[in-house]
Write a structure and sequence with these properties.
Radius of gyration: 13 Å
Distance between the termini: 37 Å
Largest sheet: 7 strands, mixed
Strand content: over 45%
Number of strands: 11
């Protein structure tokens, strides 16, 4: 399974960014896809995850109502639309994939990871 995240950059507080993650591999469309973020010296934390058929999406409380996850299985791509961004959203964002049941929110349940994309929100 290969994952490639993109779309990071610099944005002002209150602005928006959309991250993309392309994924490939056997039965790629059946993965649960997750988004995590990490800042220096801290653990990787859960942001959002979406089921393989987009029927269920889970969000961290810190981003609920501001971030929206989606996926286009025909393009093997998942998206994280980030609106009303805050300086505390600054982090390296990673996409991850798992075959696990349900919608895991722990990084240890995701065996496949992309390389990360840096998001910086200025105040």
């Amino acid at each position: 399974v290969q994952l490639q995240a993109s779309g990071g950059g610099l944005v002002q507080a209150g602005g928006s960014l959309r991250l993309s993650c392309t994924h490939s591999g056997r039965t790629a469309s059946t993965y649960v896809m997750g988004w995590f973020r990490q800042t220096p010296g801290k653990e990787r934390t859960f942001v959002a995850a979406i089921s393989w058929n987009s029927g269920n999406t889970v969000y961290a409380d810190s981003v609920k109502g501001r971030f929206t996850g989606s996926r286009d299985n025909a393009k093997n791509t998942v998206y994280l639309q980030m609106n009303r961004m805050k300086p505390e959203d600054t982090a390296i964002y990673y996409c991850a994939a798992t075959y696990a049941r349900g919608i895991p929110t722990s990084s240890i349940d995701y065996p496949y990871w992309g390389q990360g994309t840096l998001v910086t929100v200025s105040s």
